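Today's session is about reading a structure prediction critically. Students often jump straight to the picture, but the first step is always the sequence itself: look for stretches that repeat, for charged clusters, for runs of hydrophobic residues. Only then move on to the predicted structure, which in these notes is written as discrete structure tokens rather than atom positions. Here is the chain we will use throughout the hour.
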Amino acid sequence: MATNQASHSDRKFTIPVNDDANQQASLSIEIGDFDYSKRSQWLRAAVLGANDGLVSTASLMMGVGAVKQDIKAMILTGFAGLVAGACSMAIGEFVSVYSQLDMELAQMKREKQRVENGERVLENEEEDKGTLPNPLQAAAASALAFSVGAMVPLLAASFIRDYKVRLGVVVGAVSLGLVVFGWLGAVLGKAPFVKSAVRVLVGGWLAMAITFGLTKLIGSSRL
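Below is the predicted structure for this chain, in token form.
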């Protein structure tokens, strides 16, 4: 009898332990999913800014290089593109995200007026505020990422005097940078790496080729 009672007691004791383990595993999965969803705000701004910094600055430098072989002209063009682009990205992202914030706050206010239970409203409001977009965070991430991306073609062209070699090095460095940023965005966002990298790389090549070709055409026609 003592043995049977001990056995029953052990069974009763192990059931809540297993339940707690399952609850903890479920909680860890939910937390992991929540972390990735919160990354979407700054990740979108950072990836967009880095790609734009790479492509737009390199395209500007390639366009100037199509009609002027002076290294100083390319570097000054790239630096001006870095400063102007970083400011433009920051302002644009701030205004865009702030508009989204205003809409979500207005929606929260409408939902609050429809709920009669004050305690439940307070809890929902606190939870919702934790997931609201942050305009300053998005603007800073976008400007910083743009600057980092724009530094790639600038550094690649800074120490090469030969015109043709300089253009080739800029294209190569930008291509590598596009693949790296495409891979980083895919890893952080849990997206397919190959599709992301190819999409970013082909888009960058097209932008540089179109800018170089059109600028060369206009420069040769002396318009």
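Discussion point for the tutorial: The chain has one domain: 42-221.
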